C-alpha cells in the first residue's frame, strides 16, 4: 500500500510540475518599456534673427481637443529674405493642469526623439538641427534656419519617437506630432 501511494504521489508531482512552473511564468509580468507617444497639444517654433535683425518670429500650432475634434489653430511664419535665424521648438500638453512641458521630456529622452524639418519648396528654407543626444545623433530642439530669396511655401515639422531604434534617420519609430506652417519670405 505504501509503495502505491508513494508512486501515485510521485507520478502526480511529476505530472503537475510543468503546470506549476508554467503558472509561475504567467504570474510574472514582463516589464514593458515606456514607449508611449507623448500627448502634444501645442507646438511653438520661435526663430530669432541675428542681433539688429529684428524681433523673433513665432509660429504656433494648437489642438487642445485632439484629433477628430475642432480644427487646430495655426499661425504662420513671415521671415526676412537671405537671413540666418536661430530656431527653438517647444511642446506642451494643455490637457493637463498645470500644463505639461513636453519639451523637457523630449530633451531628457533625446536619444529616443528626432525632429524632421521639411520645407516646400526645398529651396525656401535650409534647416539644420544643431543639438545632439548622448550618442551624438541630431535631435532638432535647436536649429539654424537660412532663408532664400523672397517666396512662399510650407514648413512641415515632425517629431519622431524612436525608443531603441534611433539611428539618425526619420525612418524608425512612430510620429508623436506632425504640423505644417505656412511660410512667407520677404
Automatic annotation (TrEMBL):
Residues 1-25 form the signal peptide. PROSITE patterns: PROKAR_LIPOPROTEIN (PS51257). Keywords: Signal. It comes from the Bacteria. The keyword Signal applies. This is Type 1 periplasmic binding fold superfamily protein. It comes from Hymenobacter montanus. The lineage of its organism: Bacteria, Pseudomonadati, Bacteroidota, Cytophagia, Cytophagales.
Amino acid at each position: 500500500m505504501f509503495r502505491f501511494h508513494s508512486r501515485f504521489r510521485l507520478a502526480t508531482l511529476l505530472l503537475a510540475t510543468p503546470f506549476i512552473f508554467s503558472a509561475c511564468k504567467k504570474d510574472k509580468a514582463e516589464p514593458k518599456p515606456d514607449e508611449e507617444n507623448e500627448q502634444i497639444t501645442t507646438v511653438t517654433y520661435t526663430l530669432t534673427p541675428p542681433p539688429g535683425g529684428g524681433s523673433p518670429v513665432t509660429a504656433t500650432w494648437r489642438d487642445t481637443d485632439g484629433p477628430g475634434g475642432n480644427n487646430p489653430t495655426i499661425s504662420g511664419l513671415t521671415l526676412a529674405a537671405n537671413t540666418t535665424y536661430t530656431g527653438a521648438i517647444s511642446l506642451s500638453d494643455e490637457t493637463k493642469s498645470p500644463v505639461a512641458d513636453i519639451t523637457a521630456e523630449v530633451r531628457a529622452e533625446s536619444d529616443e526623439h528626432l525632429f524632421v524639418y521639411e520645407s516646400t519648396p526645398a529651396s525656401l528654407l535650409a534647416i539644420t538641427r544643431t543639438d545632439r543626444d548622448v550618442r551624438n545623433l541630431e535631435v532638432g530642439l535647436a536649429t539654424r534656419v537660412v532663408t532664400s530669396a523672397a517666396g512662399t511655401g510650407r514648413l512641415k515639422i515632425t517629431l519622431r519617437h524612436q525608443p531603441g531604434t534611433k539611428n539618425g534617420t526619420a525612418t524608425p519609430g512612430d510620429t508623436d506630432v506632425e504640423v505644417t506652417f505656412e511660410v512667407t519670405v520677404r
